[in-house]
Specification:
ShKT domain-containing protein, 53 residues, globular, 1 helix
């Protein structure tokens, strides 16, 4: 099971929708496209999973 820390990081300057809300998204990036983790990752690690527009 994936454990997340509660620290937040921000995305690109001026982009409120491009954020990672967990501090360890970079370490968990391999889970971006792996079910069942992809849903959680897309919600909590948008920047790391390259889901920003």
């Amino acid at each position: 099971m994936i454990q997340y820390s509660n620290l937040a990081t921000t995305g690109a300057a001026g982009s409120s929708s491009c954020t990672d809300i967990r501090a360890n998204c970079a370490q968990m990036s391999s889970y971006c496209n792996v079910p069942p983790y992809s849903t959680v990752m897309s919600q909590q690690c948008r920047r790391t999973c390259r889901l920003c527009t």
